[in-house]
Amino acid sequence: MRHTPLHRIYRTLNHEIHYLMSFIGGCLEIVSFMFLYKALIGYMTANMIFGIAALAQGRMNFESCYHIAIIVIWMSLAALHPLLVSRYPVRLTSPWQGYALALSLNCLLLLAFMLLGAALARHGQIGHQPTPAVLPLVTLGLVFMYIQNFVIKHGGTRQPTATSVVTTVYVLMVSRLFALCDRQRQRRERLALYHEGRHYLLVITHFFVGAWLTALLSRQLGFYSLLPAWLALLLFTLRIWQRHRRQRGEAQ
């Protein structure tokens, strides 16, 4: 792929990690928004706003607490993660092994999320209002997104971003690209600004394409609209395992 237009976008495997995770993040976010009662499982601030608005209406039912429960589950994952790391340390034989293990786990989680979501929808468990029946599905999605964010934040590029395309990414993209208009900057500095701004643009673009494609497929496929995202993740995971084995062999 070197010296091709694709190589100019996917310059390194680290960049590929960022962009694929953004694509898959868009796929999962749009599904959670459409089928899980606007539960943006990568946006805790949005869930807090929905939760506060529901509680402010004075109705203490499951629907009012649904989005707050999502935040509680997310914070529990954040607390549990360091405890598991300290309790069960893993000795990695190459820097890529950690990515390979995390992505392999996410392949299983995304497949389980897709199948469970389709089963719940088929049996009428996903209706007009949230019920406790959807919490296992939401929890699967939250664990997936937590691992996804962990992978992309350690993706190795100079501009780490969150998996979810948050407001900060838009601000960084615009500020870096418009800073190119400042002719007083040296060429090296302007080149660095260009690469950083383009990186944020590509993160947003991959997120948008993933969400758009999944939204179109969901009209006919429902939760199975996540199948392209799962296949892309599976193929990329196999590639990471191949890179890990190659680097481990070189080290030996």
TrEMBL record:
Keywords: Membrane, Transmembrane, Transmembrane helix. The chain crosses the membrane at residues 17-35, 65-84, 96-121, 133-152, 158-179, 200-217, 223-241. It comes from the Bacteria. Pfam families: DUF1275. InterPro entries: DUF1275. This is Predicted membrane protein. It comes from Edwardsiella hoshinae. The lineage of its organism: Bacteria, Pseudomonadati, Pseudomonadota, Gammaproteobacteria, Enterobacterales.
